[in-house]
């Protein structure tokens, strides 16, 4: 199954069961599973918001962006989709070496400027797509 169709608690249960099944003799395992999981979210591939985001990123960086699936979906995205019927577009302007959410995290000011420009262009272009 695709990740967006999985239930977090079911996946945790399967991982715990797998670990216990393959536990070497003489080894004890204690797992404290966090039950604050959220259902995964995925925007449809042909959603206008995603297509506009790709156009904007290509314009800013001069090359076609890559579509990726990322772990750690913000729980509000799935809730917006399920309860309100709306989709969420994410832009990421940090780079892998910025150690996002780590004690030594940092963020390049240039990336902040890229983000501001991207959102400005995004809403301008969305207004053209959905006048």
Please provide a written account of the structure.
This protein has 131 residues and is mainly α. 45% of the residues lie in helices and 0% in strands. The chain is built from four helices and no strands. Helix 2 packs across helix 4. The radius of gyration is 19 Å and the shape is extended. 5% of the residues are buried. The model has no long low-confidence stretch (mean pLDDT 87).
Number of helices, where a helix is a run of at least 4 consecutive DSSP H or I residues? 4
Order of helices and strands: HHHH
Structural class by secondary-structure content: mainly alpha
| CA-based shape | extended
Number of strands: 0
Topology record:
Blueprint (H helix, E strand, L loop, with lengths): L7 H14 L26 H14 L13 H10 L24 H21 L2
Helix pairs in contact: 2-4
Task: Summarize this entry quickly.
With 131 residues, the chain is mostly helical. It has four helices and no strands.
Task: Fill in the keyword field for this structure.
131 residues; mainly alpha; 4 helices; 0% strand
């Amino acid at each position: 199954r695709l990740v967006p169709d999985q239930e977090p608690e079911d996946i945790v249960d399967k991982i715990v069961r797998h670990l216990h099944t393959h536990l070497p003799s003489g080894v004890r395992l204690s797992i404290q599973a966090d039950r604050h999981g959220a259902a995964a979210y995925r925007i449809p591939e042909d959603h206008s918001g995603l297509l506009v985001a790709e156009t904007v990123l290509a314009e800013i960086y001069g090359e076609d962006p890559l579509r990726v699936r990322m772990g750690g979906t913000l729980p509000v995205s799935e809730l917006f989709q399920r309860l309100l019927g709306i989709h969420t577009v994410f832009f990421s302007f940090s780079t892998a070496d910025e150690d996002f959410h780590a004690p030594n995290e940092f963020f390049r000011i240039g990336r902040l400027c890229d983000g501001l420009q991207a959102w400005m262009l995004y809403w301008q272009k969305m207004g053209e797509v959905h006048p």
